[in-house]
Amino acid sequence: MNADSLSDNENAPEYKRIYQLYSNSLKSIPATILTSSILLVLLWTKVPWETILIWFSIVFSASLIRYHNVRQALATKSYLQKDHKDSMRQFIFGSSFTAAVWGASFLLFCLYTDEAYSLLMIWIASAIAMGGSLSLSPSKYAQKIFVCLIFIPAIVMNILSGNEFNITLGLLCIMFLAVLIILGNNFSNLVNDALNLENTNQELLLSLQQKNARLEESNLELTRTKEFLTQQTLSDPLTGIANRRSFDNTLIREWNRCLRRQHPLSCILIDVDHFKKYNDQFGHQMGDALLQEISNTISSQATRAEDLVARYGGEEFVVILSNASHDDAVMLAERTRKAITEKNFKHAEDSPFDKVTISAGVATMTPDNTLDCYDIVHKADEKLYEAKKSGRNRTC
Ligand SMILES: Nc1nc2c(ncn2[C@@H]2O[C@H](COP(=O)(O)OP(=O)(O)OP(=O)(O)O)[C@@H](O)[C@H]2O)c(=O)[nH]1
């Protein structure tokens, strides 16, 4: 039996009813032993001692055996869970046997005692019947059998006695039994309603927990999708580096940061030389692959956490260097240009260069309120134009 089916059984209303019955009798059996001990003392001089001792031994041993069985069933639980009908049958048999012993006992004791003791016996029988009725309330069937078996022998004996006092006593017992059955029935309805309600509550709680778990899962999925979409909107699909939108955001942020701290901000614009010729000879796909290689090479050079490498558009790339001097930026641009040359990517035959090269324009500004953040990009663009005009494969 797996954990799920075990907990299903534990929550089943039928199991709860049986469990309640067993745990109630665990408390009522010691009360039975106590009552029989009191009766032993009370009747010691009225009933022959052999008879009372045999009676007490039967009640005491039967109670001990029942107590042991009930404890065992409650401790292992599996018996109660596996077969509801069988455990209910066993329980009803045990409680009916106890009631029959008590019913027969009262019959026996009335034979040896006077009217005052008969009244006492009926009073004790009523107390036991009431206690049993409450304890057996989860099962109407067990409840009715119990009270009937306690009272019917005494009722029959009293009515058949022909004695006026005993007939009255018998009739009173019938009335009390009827009241006990009606009240017991109502109480049983209440107990069973409460058990069913508890079960419904547990089912609702479980379904609420499951819905909550599903909601949390969807929420997580939504967060992941949001992160993925954010990533998609900020990265270039071909090269995987930051796209123009991400570059714009970073430029504004870093410009404002350098403005506050009065740090220099550098911008490098990089353009592949004669890329059209490369594309025309090797095809667009090879052109794409080359752009990916170039983007990787630039990223491998600008490695500070605050550096940003982005695709500016087409075959143009841009690097933002926060708090970097012009000399540092030129050095980085040169290092990148050389790294690409050293890759020895074969260029198109009609290109003036036998291998792929880049041109770079570097601009450095310390932001102030008279400037706009895009001024640095325009300046870098002018420098790039200068590099192109003065022969390409160079940094200006
Ligand atoms: N394969 C590929 N080609 C692109 C992409 N974006 C732009 N291009 C091509 O890049 C080429 C750019 O050509 P031009 O602007 O004339 O520049 P160039 O040939 O590099 O010449 P210079 O910049 O003056 O050295 C065009 O042929 C575009 O089609 C892209 O994503 N993939």
UniProtKB/TrEMBL annotation:
Q: Which Enzyme Commission number(s) are listed?
A: 2.7.7.65
The GGDEF domain sits at 263-396
This protein's source sits in the domain of life called Bacteria
Transmembrane residue ranges: 26-45, 51-70, 91-110, 116-134, 141-161, 167-187
Keyword terms: Coiled coil, Membrane, Transmembrane, Transmembrane helix
Q: Does the keyword Membrane apply?
A: yes
Q: Which reaction does it catalyse?
A: 2 GTP = 3',3'-c-di-GMP + 2 diphosphate
Gene3D superfamilies given for it?
A: 3.30.70.270
Q: Coiled coil where?
A: 194-232
Instruction: Identify the PROSITE patterns for this entry.
Output: GGDEF (PS50887)
**Record InterPro entries:** Diguanylate_Cyclase (IPR050469), GGDEF_dom (IPR000160), Nucleotide_cyclase (IPR029787), Rev_trsase/Diguanyl_cyclase (IPR043128)
Q: Which Pfam families match?
A: GGDEF
Q: Which NCBIfam families match?
A: GGDEF
Matching PANTHER family: DIGUANYLATE CYCLASE DGCM-RELATED (PTHR45138:SF9), REGULATORY COMPONENTS OF SENSORY TRANSDUCTION SYSTEM (PTHR45138)
What protein am I looking at? diguanylate cyclase
Q: Which organism is it from?
A: Litoribacillus peritrichatus
